[in-house]
Amino acid sequence: MCKAIHCSESFVLQTLALDPVSYRDAMSQLAGHVHIVTTAEGEARRGVTITAACSVSDDPATLLVCLNQANVRNDIFLTSGCFALNVLGADQIGLANVFSGREPIEPEYRFDHGDWGTLLTGAPSLNGAMAVFDCEVIDVKRIATHMVLFGKVVAMQTAEAREALVYLNRGYRSV
Question: 0.85 cut: is pTM over it?
């Protein structure tokens, strides 16, 4: 284990016991944009509120999303071969709550909320989202509790810029 970092000056990095609760507490200090990642296969649809998403490359346009692999309902993201990353504005906090499970709505009824369409892949795209990135899954990495889906962006749409919805200190904020 690394105990020291060497820069222009040397110093010793104190290591603390790193347990999952302490890690989550520290990560709550990291602001993340709120998204709903969606997919569809046949008549089945799935949508989940996430903050773990980012750009990987702009050429070709590629991004990644992280999903909890303990939830068997998320297997549809693997079998469908596609997903849409729907970037939420501050005015869409209600949808973030619906798709996070904070609202007591069964997953099969979540898409009754919001105005949903599709782009190229058939994954549900939120009309009015700040941006939607419609992706084909090109790679999957399983790391610890999560699966990381890498998606090649095949279509996208944007809306007018407005306040973004972020998650920080275990609560929603707008920026």
Answer: yes
